[in-house]
Amino acid sequence: MQIPLLRLQCGVNSYDWGKVGQESAAARYAATTAASDFTIEAEKPYAELWMGTHPSLPSKDVETQRTLLDMVQDNQALLSTEVSERYGSRLPFLFKVLSIRKALSIQAHPNKKLAEQLHARDPRNYPDDNHKPEMTIAITPFEGLCGFRPLAEITHFLQAIEPLRKLVGQQAANDFEQIVKGNEESEDEDVMQRNKDALRTIFTSLMESAPENIEAASNELVALAENSPASFGTLPGDVETNPANPRQLAEIITRLNGQFPHDLGLFVFFFLNFITLEPGEAMFLKADDIHAYVSGDIIECMASSDNVVRAGFTPKFKDISTLTQMLTYSYAPIEEQKLRPKDYPFTVLNATAYSSGSSSLLYDPPIEEFSVVKTDLNRTGAKATFDGIVGPSILICTRGSGSITVGHKTEEVKEGYVFFIGADAECVIQNTGSGEGEDDVFTTYKAFCELTGKEDMVNGH
Ligand SMILES: [Zn+2]
């Protein structure tokens, strides 16, 4: 039988928000294994590298030039019977590298039930009837918006930023403040429900603002950001905003307005958590979580689906009423949006790996379609052996150089190389770098699906 290790050729999309030319990690990675007619153009944006079987941009086996989709359909043992019975003859997940220069649309992904309804009603804008949980791991410093800010922060902005208050309306702002005042931190369920209802009301009123009002308010907002950034700040002893520095807040508003002039998203910003991730830090987006990516290079893993409900920072179809109805309106500090990795017990490290502080960390969101293991092998000779699992994997190298071995097949690995590893195959990776200095780390991310029977707590219910 053929050894289940395939080097993949992966395509890169050229959306307008992508980083340009060599700046784009997605483009550089794609170029390492590209078709012969691919060269990185200096002025062109490159947004997303796609690794998987999605028919819109399917990865290919380098050796035979067959699509991975074709190969797993032909040989379902590559996926495992369990996975192919449950998800059909394709990968349950789509693995990507995103290189973000300009904000992506403010969006949320429907849960399974809503996805079915939207798809039945409007199949053109909602092409799938599936949910789309997403996980993001930063490869370079990342900025994004995710979930609603703690209520005290929202109240602060409503009071400090006059154009925001005008846009939502004086009455709506007063009503909101009256309900949440003194109850911002309450953990009483009835109180929290009242807070969420109040948040839904004021947020919906913002989202339904008339275009001419948005334009007038955004002119005022940008003038404030440019001329008196201090007005974005809080007084000593008052609530801390995120970011805490008013100049930084004002800078983000100015930058976003440069990307999307007069966009409603400029005001949505004051309702959502601003989140920054350092390389290796992650966040998981549950169904119905509002979010937007602002900048950075990231690894993204998602269930294989294309359902997005958008409302701002986008020229695409917007569906504000669906968005405002579907959100959960949970509000929490950003620390609660992050997904902390834990040690992955199914990797064995050799002595060199141990002594150099190498690690294999598992990012395990509460869904069954995917998990990701990040492995750092810190010195030449450091080696990690992954147990075979009952499901498929895709591995990408983001740093350093090494080798990958399955059975008696060994392949060289460099930054940007992507491999498919079939079900049940034990896989060994090794750092083969020059061994000089601290820059010799060999880093890989391995996305996989293994059906362990863990409940689909978040999205399925
Ligand atoms: Zn998303």
UniProtKB/TrEMBL annotation:
Annotated metabolic or biological route of this protein: Nucleotide-sugar biosynthesis; GDP-alpha-D-mannose biosynthesis; alpha-D-mannose 1-phosphate from D-fructose 6-phosphate: step 1/2
Residues the entry annotates as binding Zn(2+): 107, 109, 134, 291
Regions that span the bilayer: none
Domain Phosphomannose isomerase type I helical insertion intervals: 167-272
GO cellular component: cytosol
Comment on bound cofactor: Binds 1 zinc ion per subunit.
Domain of life: Eukaryota
EC number: 5.3.1.8
Group of enzyme by EC: isomerase
UniProt keyword annotations, A-Z: Isomerase, Metal-binding, Zinc
UniProt keyword Metal-binding present: yes
Family, per entry: Belongs to the mannose-6-phosphate isomerase type 1 family.
Protein name, UniProt field: Mannose-6-phosphate isomerase
Species in which this protein is naturally found: Penicillium chermesinum
